[in-house]
């Protein structure tokens, strides 16, 4: 399944087939699969940051609140914060993203909640006074009780590109 959203400075696509381009995302997916074993998904307690040292700068850990749904950054890797020029750790998505982008982000998380499996998002982003990037994210659901998705572990990788035109 592919779904796309375009805004003036961002393009977002959803890829349920997990056609990751960055090999690091396949490693992260393999790790998640190993940790879940025979379960639908692992719990946060199963994830050991020491085992993910190579990926730490590109990891995001997101707290999920339900009724109403709210997303909060629990952890954002230093490679991500350095590129974005800000550290949003501890902030809710609705405190930092514009409504159009927030709606797109929530659609991808709603897909994860409904399907209870990983989702790759990808696209292009332009950061004023910085650069134009393609990016891909692999979002991996976590559940402490095996029922409710209460966290998402994400790997986010940016690749510099030449702006179109």
Automatic annotation (TrEMBL):
Domain of life: Bacteria
Pfam families: PAS_5
Annotated protein name in UniProt: PAS domain-containing protein
């Amino acid at each position: 399944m592919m779904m796309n959203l375009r805004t003036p400075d961002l393009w977002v696509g959803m890829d349920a087939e997990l056609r990751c381009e960055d090999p690091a995302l396949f490693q992260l997916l393999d790790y998640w699969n190993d940790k879940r074993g025979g379960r639908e998904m692992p719990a946060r307690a199963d994830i050991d940051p020491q085992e993910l040292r190579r990926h730490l700068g590109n990891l995001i850990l997101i707290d999920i609140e339900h009724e109403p749904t709210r997303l909060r950054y629990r952890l954002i890797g230093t490679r991500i914060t350095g590129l974005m020029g800000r550290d949003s750790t501890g902030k809710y998505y609705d405190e930092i993203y514009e409504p159009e982008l927030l709606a797109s982000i929530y659609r991808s998380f709603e897909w994860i909640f409904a399907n209870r499996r990983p989702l790759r998002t990808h696209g292009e982003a332009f950061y004023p006074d910085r650069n134009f990037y393609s990016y891909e994210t692999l979002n991996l659901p976590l559940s402490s009780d095996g029922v409710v998705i209460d966290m998402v572990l994400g790997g986010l990788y940016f690749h510099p590109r030449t702006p179109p035109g």
